[in-house]
User: Fold these one by one.
Assistant:
Number 1:
Amino acid sequence: IEIKKIENPTNRQVTYSKRRAGIMKKASELTVLCDAQLSLVMFSSTGKFSEYCSPTTDTKNIYDRYQQVSGINLWSSQYEKMQNTLNHLKEINQTLRREIRQRMGEDLDGLEIKELRGLEQNMDESLKLVRTRKYHVISTQTDTYKKKLKNSQETHRNLLRELEAEHAVYYVDDDPNSYDGALALGNGPSYLYSFRSQPSQPNLQGMGYGPHDLRLA
């Protein structure tokens, strides 16, 4: 059989799955029969990851031993990348801290006229955004409180109507010749009321109260 790349993707994936299972089996047998320590890492053409490691060790120990024997540092390039990333993040952090201090009116000695004008413009734009947000919040809260007040007033009116329907009937005595009418005209007709019992209140019927015995002023 000629060893070359299988062009058909389906056949290539089937062959990879079969050969992978065979390699894993051989690695397990080699570990048991020869007491060997090995680590096997595979990536398919589609990026699927597979690995095998002897039960008596782990992948990191295998890599550490490989570095000791070969003298190759596997982590130097990764460590260098991490250091570069850390330095870049430190620079960004320092820049942001300096901008915060400048917006607080500090650390302005090294700035030129152009930089100061740019800082002033940025602060004006930020102030406009803050004011717009503040007015929006105030408007929203005002509308909410107006709705609550309207609902409370409507509830209050409904309760008053229910109370008037269930209890007494109040009326103004407008006869100026009577004692009630004279007192009402003297104090204002809206401040004197006479009380009349409802037919549904038999306890108040026939109790002997005169026209001036029970009043609300």
Number 2:
Amino acid sequence: MARVFVYGTLKKGQPNYKHMINTAKGLAKFQGRGRTVEKYPLVIAGKYNIPYMLNIPGTGHHIAGEIYSVDEQMLQFLDEFEGCPDMYQRTLMRIQVVEWEGKGGAAEARAAADGVLECFVYSTATYPPEWVGLPYYDSYDSSGKHGLSYVLRESR
């Protein structure tokens, strides 16, 4: 099992969460909520209003999201879904645990108690330079005050 931190449309209550609970795509078990240890810019960009975490450590906000344990099948699905490695790149990041529900081995419990876990995160280093000038968010909600509703793939 691998640990993945999701901050955008794959979170509970968001437009693509359905993929996280579709066991035909693999297994994803919700472990808890967290936020990035380092600050990053989280922007909503492009004509489909997609949330992107720009891989610019030290700029922006501590991004809030959810931590999942996923099997190899789900990880492969997520790589494809996220357009990895072209649109997003899957990298390890340190995530501060805010709330933990996971029931794992002793090592996982210790890491969670410590407060910091290493998780795979889909961020991007391949973005148009003007995205750096967009508003930065610390949390994503497709129906947030920003008014930039996410456009589902099936509607594009």
Number 3:
Amino acid sequence: SGIQCWRVCFRDLSLMCDVKTIEISENMRVVLNRIAKCVSNHPPPRLVAVSKTKPVELIQRLYDDGHRHFGENYVRDLVEKADQLPNDVQWHFIGHLQRNKCKQLLALNNLFIIETVDSTKLAIQLNKECEKLKRERINVFVQINTSGETSKFGVSRSECVEMVQFIIDTCPRLHFKGLMTIGTSNSRNCMLTLVSCRSDVSSRLNIPESEIELSMGMSADFELAIELGSTNVRLGSILFGPRSVPRQTSTSSPVR
């Protein structure tokens, strides 16, 4: 009957979903084993599971397995998913942040860090919104454009120390936690540039290098990043597979 066909289809769909969630758990196990092989005399980096375009059910599976740090590129997606998941998920915002979205993002109590602070204007806006929301502090990484490409966001290497100094001196609601880069196909050079930026910040601002995190390394190069000192790797496709549906981007100029 039609009802029986529907039940069969529903059962098959459920089985497909189970296979997907099981694969996610296995993918995480494999990645953690690979990370363990990269570290010997220092703690493993924080693993941020980047769930762009993926359904909440897959995030929930990793949460049920014990994972807590997840990343999103778009404010709307992060807010929507945060509303459907437990409050102890530690969210990382890892996309380009427009100033008019700061309030919405900072309203999330379990926002762990904004990894992409790339201008003094954005830092000022975040600090103002924290004050308005009576939020004590929010962790931030300063994003560095390590490739020098005009298509990439981030401050230049030469502006790095000045940007960190600005946050420390004028944005008391922002907790400078480290440096971040997206990188390019020439990932080694980009990562080495970020390592050099950390050295510059450490020596010129008298901050121990051990207190400056490095967010670098994605699915294709996370082992190299760990070798070079990354403390925060952002892994998406290696865990969740390729993006499900390409997201349309606005043609208007971003508000920065």
Number 4:
Amino acid sequence: MPTTSDSSSDARVSPIPVTVFTGFLGAGKTTIIMDLLKSMPPNYNIVMLKNEFGDAETDSALVRESNIQVQEMTNGCLCCVLVGQMQSALLEMKEKFNPDRIIIETSGSAFP
């Protein structure tokens, strides 16, 4: 007897490209990202995971002005303290924003 398959269960999920920007404090990570965002098509959905070592969200305010979604990870470093939280943050971003690309900007004190 032939069986029918549920097309939703057979659907392939495309991976979301992730770009990581890292560098020393003041190296210009946020500046480069802001410049790159200007060249993106208007309908290209970019979401940013921003790692601020302290509790200040200075750079994130600048990035939000470019109309992309920003999720903060503060009070710790992605590569050391917040490693387990990064997976949760990425999954949440995928569900909430369905991005075409995720940009991760590490803290200037990161050791990736």
